[in-house]
What does this fold into?
Amino acid sequence: DGGITQSPKYLFRKEGQNVTLSCEQNLNHDAMYWYRQDPGQGLRLIYYSQIVNDFQKGDIAEGYSVSREKKESFPLTVTSAQKNPTAFYLCASSMSRNRGGTGELFFGEGSRLTVL
Amino acid sequence: EDQVTQSPEALRLQEGESSSLNCSYTVSGLRGLFWYRQDPGKGPEFLFTLYSAGEEKEKERLKATLTKKESFLHITAPKPEDSATYLCAVQHTPNAGGTSYGKLTFGQGTILTVHP
It folds into this structure.
């Protein structure tokens, strides 16, 4: 079945450590996104990528980094520079606009990061 | 800057008790308004896209409507399995030469609980 796979589902990190969250999709979507969700707040965009080897900062990119070396993969690194990294992280993908895609996003199951 | 406000924050209904969720938005040229459903600990699942005032979409017990300032998600005769957080998001029309597909601004969500 086509979909988006995020791993790990739960992750604990000590302060000062970098961690990388994995996101893989087999939907053949061009665009991929990382969102952060905190209790009582809407989803906030961290980074997005419209094509391979290209990505743009979202609204809250500070303290995060990404890469897009393959169409299927869009890993997110939470660096030690991120002041408040404990959150629920969601990866999503969508068709490109020139293929008729719009804001219909397909989300993964999420990764919950806790900083100890 | 696009803004989305959802109300109420939480709604408790008895099974069969119909009601509506509200999504008020401010956007510089609406390209689309989107409704998602999110179960606890899961990623959001796409429900509807609305493009212009007066448009309506239906799916089972859910009906989404759109005006120039807000959208409603009507739930008719809800069942306990309709319990979830419902998220609203908007996408603005990009400037000439720009692309904004997938860059959604989300509301904080309405937590719906339906009791048997």
